[in-house]
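Aim 2, interim progress. The first record below pairs a target sequence with its structure tokens.
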Amino acid sequence: MNKPTKPRIVLREAETDDVDALAEIENQAFEHDRMSRRRFRYWLQATHCIFLVADHNGQVCGYTLVLLHRGTRLARLYSLAVAPGYQGLGLSRRLLSEAEKEAAERKRLFMRLEVARSNEKAIGLYESMGYKVFGSLEDYYEDHEDALRMQKRVRTLAPKLLQKRTPWYQQTTSFTCGPASLLMAMGSLRPRLKRDRTSELDIWREATTIFMTSGHGGCHPVGLGLAAARRGFQAEVYLSTGEPLFVNGVRDPEKKEVVRLVDQQFREHAREDDVPIHQLMVSQEHIAAWIEEGCAVVILISTYRMDGRKAPHWVTVSGIDSECLYVHDPDPEKDKQDALDCQYMPIAREDFDRMSSFGKEKLRACVVLRRIRKG
């Protein structure tokens, strides 16, 4: 007796005409957390994703959607589904393997995913493909089930990773990335530290430059260092220049004078409160040494490579290896990111060097925190 032949199924990029078939598979595969037709159409038009379908003689029988976040080397498996009549043919493995290959070709280093804790079949598939659990999320899905977070390196290399356990905190305003990043850094050294909006706004009032490029003022690195010192941490500030910061970010002469005065006041307070200010072009080697020592590091970057805007933005360094620096970004609004993808975001070292200098002056600024040792 001849064995039945497997159907010839090809993988291809998803197209706008696939929406109805994709929606049908979605409804068959998932009881909760389903994507709508509108959401499928959005991703079909997006450029920062990998969207593949399995096609059997013109009939879509499975799909995978992977998100590629700008400015990082992170890819995230957003959804993977196969129509009931085509299960058992290895399509999930084929779709995910092809997505991993494309992600690696687009210079992504890691693929991440979330899976229901009870979904043993899917967990078994991911584990067999090299994914490892690195965290969990309680009450993650609509039906209140917990999720496991899994990750795989899709470009082969096994570097030594220096990682700092860092709690994530989302900024609650458009102008408080500095306080939010400082709260994360302080929380990595003192896990029970209170992290809430009141603390966030208190720090902003203490550290604001008053004026920045637009809107509310951002935070001065010395102001953040002073705020940390007042909360019982040993803080040091590293600046690539001794000149007043952010003066060129405002055009109005009166505002420029205010920015200069605030800069001068911060430096005077730092001398009074024993917060050292070092003039140094901080390197990745400095950051690696601080992380290995157990310090917390908050650093100023330009968001241009993330969202096309040349805005100053504070992030917390949460790890480093031979290829990437990892950061906790307090703002998940960029590129419509999920909050999960703002944690341990891998940024290639060559990209980070360009991102971590701001403005025409190539300002590099960071705040390094240590616990104050008793006795």
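The second target in this work package is listed in the same format:
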Amino acid sequence: MAYEFKLPDLGEGLTEGEVARWLVEEGQEIAEDEPLVEIATDKTTVEIPSPTGGKVSQILVAEGEVVPVGTVLVVIGGDGNATKSPAQAQQATASPAGEKVRATPLVRKVAAELGVDLATISGSGPQGRVTEEDVRSAGGAAPKSEGERVPLRGVRRQMFEHLTRAHREIPAVTWVEECDFTDVDLKRLVPLVLHAVTESLREYPELNARVEDGELVLLDRYDIGVAVQTEQGLVVPVVHAADKLSPDELDAEVRRLAEAAQAASLTPEELRGGTFTVTSAGKAAGLFVTPLVNHPEVAILGVHRIEERAVVRDGEVVVRRMGNISVTFDHRVIDGKRAADFGLAVIARLEA
């Protein structure tokens, strides 16, 4: 009997996913719980095991395709004839005039700018997807042939789409101030910052919040995301219940999550539910940058380059280890005074 494996609901409001990589081929025998496919979402790339054993009779979605939750991805066992979803059926049976065009939002934007009707183009991408080159060729503005074209896939595509939305929807403002890190153990910088952040968020709850349906939802949990740069791109694993962890426990959890991020082995649960985000680029940090708010959160704290500087203390010029702390916030729901007070509270805790 054939088993139709559909793209599962991976939680956190996700409605679609990208088939990043098939771990099987058609005709291959697979056992239950063996790795089947890697799915990329706007959070991470997740390896999904096969829910059943049998012969992989038909793979219905190619690598690089973005499909909605509930789409049949593969048929295991049987004769390989899948019951297609309404969207798949429409794509397979509709006439050219009424066919649903397969194209990414970026390609649709380019088509609109060039005045090109996507329905008139035969897509050259996987499963007939219309590419940007198809659109520009049809619009008489074919791209130059020089240079290497690198498709935005997996984590890079997720980061592209997520940050585009954040930049488009959130009117962000950034506050910045100096912090004296002379007495801070920089080997434990991130956990110490997390500890200071969770304590300060108790005093300024509107920064530990989300915007939902036109309302600011003040959250009573402190699940802090930590931005981690990997070879695949930027991911934000979440330290759950950070307020209940000691600095030593925070240190161990941050290290564990960072190692899992580098190994691309983070679970969906480790990437969900963040209420606030902290970002620090370490040695690559500049004097100051403006991080984007991690939608649907309303604020993010940045720790920037730390170095010895000449400063004035008690009328004397002395050398101290200084760095900048920034708070980027959604100005629709947080005013500048509250964001500044929160940032100063974090700094006071670090300097103490």
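The helical segments are 86-93, 105-114, 132-138, 154-169, 189-203, 247-262, 336-351. This observation will shape the mutagenesis plan for the next reporting period.
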